[in-house]
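Appendix B, record 7
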Amino acid sequence: MPAVQLLLLACLLGGVGARTAQFQKANDRSGRCQYTFSVASPSESSCPEQGQATLAIQDLQRDSSEQRATLESTKARLSSLEALLHRLTSGQPAGPLETQQGLQRELEALRREREQLETQTQELESAYSNLVRDKSALEEEKRRLQAENEDLARRLESSSQEVASLRRGQCPQAHSSSQDVPSGSREGCGELVWVGEPITLRTAETITGKYGVWMRDPQAAFPYTGETTWRIDTVGTDIRQVFEYDHIRQFTQGYPSKVHVLPRPLESTGAVVYRGSLYFQAAESRTVLRYDLRTETLKAEKEIPGAGYHGQFPYSWGGYTDIDLAVDEIGLWVIYSTEAAKGAIVLSKLNPETLELEQTWETNIRKQSVANAFIICGTLYTVSSYSSPDATVNFAYDTGTRSSKALTVPFKNRYKYSSMVDYNPLERKLFAWDNFNMVSYDIKLSRL
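Structure tokens (predicted):
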């Protein structure tokens, strides 16, 4: 081998991994010139035997095959990825499976969007309904506040007149028969001199509401207020349902907050609510019951001695109105008649807890000759007709003087079938049930 080639080979081997290379020129044993070089192995401390070298070569070949297979696999995967990337970037359509999966994903997205739109629509409809309901409630509240303002103005005017009267030293005189006046307050009392036009608050929807009774508690006890309203439809033979309304707007719109089912059936339109209890006549009996509205239990019952019942001494319109309960500034009353009184109205003051009769008066007014009756400040008033559009409050019986007198205070039966007339001392109004309609009347009292 020429010297130059040997030198190049030495340089290459040295570049591969040898750290040093030695080149020598000398004569061999025969005297010929011979070039030699030596390179240190970078990894072997000694030269292996022939068998070991073979094994090493085989290991290297096996490792090389495995690496080649791995490389080929990697190249195949890379080619596949490059092809997919090219298809995606060039806008070529995907395969059937990919197309189906993409369409499925888009369909699911559209379904979610539709559900969101439906939910939003329902929320908008609900919000609109709430706005309409709130608008109606606000309008009703506005009417109620206007009525309260008018009532406050009237009371303020009355109070101013009383103050002026007191300043002039014109104090009201004591009642001429004070020994007969029941316990209670007669503050602001006087004789009924005017009844206003009826104001319709509600109309019953079914035949069972042709006649009935509606009421509020003038001395409301928790959880009730002066605004809580009760209603009973009294057409039928087994009357037990009492509808309760927390607010006036619920009553006028017909949405009861609760329905009581009485343990015993009720008769007539003479029921009242007072101090948290419902007082009513048990069907086909002369027994008056006290039903606690909060606990929904009977608290007391009392048979009214000798009282006619179930059509014996009703008002002129009928309806088994033999026993009529009433409330005024003084307390709880019962209006009825007996055989001994020969059909004349008998009036008794009741203990609201026990229903014991505390005091009784017998009038000279025939019960069946009048359409209805109510009590204001211890004075009994009667209505001449239940059907005439232009009826009158025609008699007054004063329990203080035990005397009666004729009156001609106009009273309108707008719907020509008034089956119930009661007085509410808290609101200073008359409540009535006139041919399916629940109405109220403003009133005026003269000063004592």
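Remarks on this record: DSSP finds four helices and 22 strands in the chain. The helical segments are 3-16, 50-90, 96-167, 248-253.
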